[in-house]
Request: fold
Amino acid sequence: KNQVEQSPQSLIILEGKNCTLQCNYTVSPFSNLRWYKQDTGRGPVSLTIMTFSENTKSNGRYTATLDADTKQSSLHITASQLSDSASYICVVSVASGGYNKLIFGAGTRLAVHP
Amino acid sequence: GAGVSQTPSNKVTEKGKYVELRCDPISGHTALYWYRQSLGQGPEFLIYFQGTGAADDSGLPNDRFFAVRPEGSVSTLKIQRTERGDSAVYLCASSSTAEYQETQYFGPGTRLLVL
Reply:
């Protein structure tokens, strides 16, 4: 069964600190892996997209890594800001039927405190 | 330009009633997706449209759920005989194509509460 698991479920950090969120997946056939940010009451917003040949991708203070061999990904947030408080969702795209079928993790809920 | 919009933003209904949820995708986007998100969970796929046709409806939980996109733009998700378990946030997303690396842009969702 296609699954995406994330850890931790929730995380509290102080403003200015760094943090790393983890994602493990069992998805086949794998197409790409995405990280989304979802603010409370809003739809998810894409942060990064990586194919199996990409090891790392950055978007400002967000850096995603991918190890396709171990089927693990991480999202590193540098110098956190209060506005980073949100849920971060790991999403794996299944190459099936010629379109992006997305399998979502449950998300990590990040709270950045002053 | 405008992003994906969904109406209503909130919907409260009674068990057994019929509801319609609307999605306006980004103009020109041919691919449209519906997802359902329960509290504390990630979104789950419901249905995917390419143009006017439902290319994959394998995520619809049962025959009480139905979706249409008659003109290849606006889509409506219809739920008959609602049950309390249908309470969730229903998200719509669109992308310019359905190619594998295409970004899906999400709307704010419709929060459905079935009493």
In short: The radius of gyration of chain A is 14 Å. The interface with chain B takes residues 4, 31-32, 41-46, 49, 51, 89, 91, 93, 95, 97-107 of chain A (CB under 8 Å). Chain A has no helices and eleven strands. Residues 56 and 65 of chain A are 4 Å apart (CA to CA).
